[in-house]
Amino acid sequence: MEGSVELREGQYGDKVWALEPGGVEAIPLRERHGKASSLFAMWMSPNLEFATVYVGALGVIIFGLNFWETVIGVVIGNALGAAAQYVLTQDGPRYGVPQMVVGRAAFGKLGNIFPSVLNAGAAGIGWFAVNSVSGAFALSTLTKLSVVLSLVLVVIAQIVIAFIGHNLVQAIEKYLFPFLLVFFALASIIVLFSHKVHLNSFAHKTSPGALLLLIGAVYGYAAGWNPFSSDYSRYLPENVDRKKAGLSAGLGIFVSATVLEIVGAAAGTAGLHSFDSGNPTGDFTSLLPTFIGDLILIGIVLGSICANVLNIYSGAMSFLTIGVKIGTNLRRGIFIIIFGLIGFFVARSAISNPANNYENFLLIMSYWIGPWLGVIFADKILRKGKSIQGMLYANRENIMGPIAFLIGAVVSIVGFCNQTWGHGKSFRLVLGVVVKHAPDLGDITFLVGFVISFVIYYFAAGSKVKAE
C-alpha cells in the first residue's frame, strides 16, 4: 500500500518474456516504461483482422445499404468509438490502473461489479469466441487442417501470450503490425479496384433506420475497446504526454477500423456472403490473386490473435476488479486460462453456425457500453479534472452510478432495441416499444442509453461529486 493505493507486487519492468505478476493493482512508478506513440500500433494491430472487414460488409449484405451509405455509417460509428478511446486512454498514465478500476470513482467499489462482470463476459468470452472462430476458419483454409484443430491451435497461442503478460502483448502488437499493414493494404487496394466491386450501385432503397443500425453495429465494434482503454497505457510513465497517448490510441482504432470496414463494404457489393449462408472468409480471398489470398489468410490468423490477446487479458482483469482475492501473484494468469477455456468451448459450439447473429452481438455490445460511458463521462465532467486516485481502492460507494447505468440501459433497451434472431421457422423479431411504432428509427439504443445515464448521473450525483 502507498497511502490508499494498492500497488502491484513483484519486479517486472520492461522485460518482454518475464511473467507479469499481480492483478489490477496500480503499477509502481519505478515499473513505468514506454512511449505514447507506441499506442498507435498497439490499437491498429487488433483491428487488422477479418472481423473488422465483416463489420463493414454488414452494411451491404445484412442492412441493405449501398456502398456510400455504408461509408457514412462506418465513419460516424468509428469516430464515436475512437473519441471515447482518446479520453479514456489518458487515465492509464495518470493513475496506473486498468480502466474498470478507474470506473470505481463513478460506480463505487460494489456498484462497479456489474459493469466489470459485463465487460469480463463480453471481452473475455464473447469477443474471444468471435475472433477465435474467424482465425480458425482462416487457418483451416490455409493449412487444410480441420476447423476444430485450427481453433485449438489459435486459442492456445492466444492464451499463452496473454498469460505471460502485458509486455509480450505489447510486443506482439508492435512487431506484427508491419506485416498486417502490408497484407491488408495490398488486399484493400486489390478489392477496391476489383471489377467485381460495384461502388456506385444505387439499385436499392433503404430507410434511415438501416443506416442507424449500421452506425450502432460499427460503434459497438469500436467501443468494444473502450472499457479497457487504460489497460494498455497504465505502464506509461506518469509524466508522459497523456493527450498524445490518447490521440495515438484513438487514431489507431479509427484508421484501422474505418479503412478495413470500407473495404468490407466494397467486398459486400462483390457478393460476400453472411457467415450463416456461406464462407465469407473464402469469398473475400477469392477476390484476390492466390498468393495475396494466402497472405491474407495468414493475416486473418495473426489479426485474430492480436485482437484476442487483448480481449482475454482485459476480460480476466475486469473479473479481478470485482474484488476476487486469491493468494498468488499469478492471479491474472489463472483467470486468463479460465476465460480462455470458456471462450474455446463457446467458439467450439458456434463453429457449425458461426456468427449467426454477429450483427446482434455488435449491437448488444453498444447497449451496455453506451450507458456505461454516459456515467463515466458525466463523472469526469463533474470532477473537472481533479484526481480520483484516493477513490480507486477505497471502500466507498457512489449509488447513483449503478442506478443511472441501470435506468439508462433498461429504458433504452425496452424502448429502442431492434434485433432479429434466428432464421426460417425460428426467426424472431425483437423490437422496443418505441421502435414498434417508428421502425425507421433503426437501432439507436446506445445513443439513448448514453444520454439517459449521463443526464441522470450529472444531476443526481452532482452534489456528492462536488463534496468529494
The level 1 CATH classification of the domain at 30-356 is: Mainly Alpha
Assign an overall shape. globular
Kindly report the CATH topology of the domain at 30-356.
Hydantoin permease
Radius of gyration: 21 Å
Query: What is the count of DSSP helices, taking H or I runs of 4+ residues?
Result: 19
Q: What is the annotated CATH architecture of the domain at 30-356?
A: Orthogonal Bundle
End-to-end C-alpha gap? 22 Å
Average pLDDT for all residues: 89
Q: So what's the oligomer here?
A: single chain
Largest sheet data: 2 strands, antiparallel
Compute the number of strand runs: 2
Helix content: 55-70%
Please indicate the percent range of residues in DSSP E strands (runs of 2 or more): under 5%
How would you classify the helix and strand content by structural class? mainly alpha
Strand order of the largest sheet: 1-2
* Low-pLDDT runs: 423-427
Can you tell me the CATH superfamily of the domain at 30-356?
Hydantoin permease
What pattern of helices and strands is seen along the backbone? HHHHHHHHHHHHHHHHEEHHH
